[in-house]
Amino acid sequence: MTPRPVPTVESAPFWEALREHRLSLPWCGACARLHHPSAIRCPSCRGVLAWQDVEATGTVDTWTVVGRSFTPGFDPPYVVARVSLDAQPDVVLDSAMTAVPPRIGAPVRATYLDDSRGFTIPVFQTI
Predict the structure, then answer these.
(1) Edge-first strand listing for the sheet containing 33-34
(2) What's the pLDDT tens digit per position in 63-84?
(3) Which of its termini does the chain have fewer beta carbons within 10 Å around, N or C?
(4) Contact 87, 55 (CB under 8 A)
């Protein structure tokens, strides 16, 4: 069983969007930038953030195969990849992968894994 995320005030909209199979990130209209992780104000200019849906695609920056259990619910071996989003390449998400280790630079798309306890996580797959 995967660990259950504990949303904060700042991250709750992220988790709510995932439940609806959408990827939504904080957007600063003042400096025209997406941000992740979530924050109350823009970390660059202190502007007001609004949530914006983005295309759940990107490229693999790096990856690793986890061979030892560090977190209950994640049974090794599994692949964790760092994904740069196409919407803004300097915004990265770390994600479990459902396939064998990808190559660096591989294009990926998020699918959504619904947990029976009421939360959803993005899982990237090569495309």
Answers:
(1) 33-34, 23-28, 49-54
(2) 999 888 877 777 788 889 999 9
(3) C
(4) yes
The rounded percent of the chain whose pLDDT value lies above 90 is: 66
SS3 for the chain is CCCCCCCCCCCHHHHHHHHCCCEEEEEECCCCEECCCCCCECCCCCCEEEEEEECCEEEEEEEEEECCCCCCCCCCCEEEEEEEECCCCCCEEEEEECCCCCCCCCEEEEEEEECCCCCEEEEEEEC
> How many other C-beta atoms can be found within 10 angstroms of the C-beta atom of residue 7?
14
Q: What backbone torsions phi and psi does residue 52 show, to the nearest 5 degrees?
A: -135, 130
Token pair for 81? 């990849």
Length of the chain: 127
d(CA 90, CA 27): 14
- Residue 22 CA: distances (Å) to CA of 51, 73, 113: 11, 24, 12
